[in-house]
Amino acid sequence: MEKALFLAAFFFAYTVQAITGFAGNIFAMPVGATLLGLSPTVSILNAMGFFACGLLAVLNIKHVNWREFGKIIAVMIVFMVVGIWLDTLMPLHVLLKIYGAVIVFIGAKNLIFTRQKFLPEWALWIILALAGLIQGMFVSGGALLVIYAVQKLRDQQEFRITLSLIWTVLNFIYACIAFQQGHFTGDVVQIIVMCIPLAVVATVLGSKLQKKISQEKFLKLTYVLLLFIGMVLLVTS
């Protein structure tokens, strides 16, 4: 029963992921952690994030903004390493709550005040660096990356596919770490196998739904998801 409920949550989460290019693991993680345990869920979602995001990126590779992809990956990986190092030195849960509150504020502000205000280039570099830092410390830097990407990747196809390729790389790194640590047990592999066809269907379905969404509605959906992510961080940290 637990596996069936997780698979249903996974299918919904990865349909959202295919529509927007982010937020899939945020939806699936709380359900999986409750039903299967945190460590198995993290391993499953790392593997499936690599597979599903990679599939979406490969099928739409022409929409990747390679310049932004290279910049984001280079900056995030460097600051991810710093974040992982900091996480071993000090308790940082208070910082995670502050981060969640900031994301809630940004999501709510952009939903209420629909006129988009552009940040200066230096501020975007700071946001990107912080996204890598938070990703390294809490595996939750996606919300800040979305704030950066909304300004830099203003076409929704370019936004979702470039982000998908970024998640492919990052999830692959985390999946390799989990494999090295022995987290891919028989049960975990079994659930991954069951998730693969669901991920394929979710990717196809999400891609079809995305084509029906206007740029304006896509932005609103993005900020709604940011608001949700911030609330999840506040509740779970």
UniProtKB/TrEMBL annotation:
Transmembrane segments: 42-61, 73-102, 122-149, 161-182, 188-206, 218-236
Species the sequence originates in: Gordonibacter pamelaeae
Protein name in UniProt: Probable membrane transporter protein
Source superkingdom: Bacteria
Membrane topology listed for this record: Multi-pass membrane protein
Keywords: Cell membrane, Membrane, Transmembrane, Transmembrane helix, Transport
InterPro entries: TM_pro_TauE-like, TSUP
Protein family according to the UniProt entry: Belongs to the 4-toluene sulfonate uptake permease (TSUP) (TC 2.A.102) family.
UniProt xrefs under Pfam families: TauE
Places the protein is found: Cell membrane
Cellular component GO terms held in the UniProt record: plasma membrane
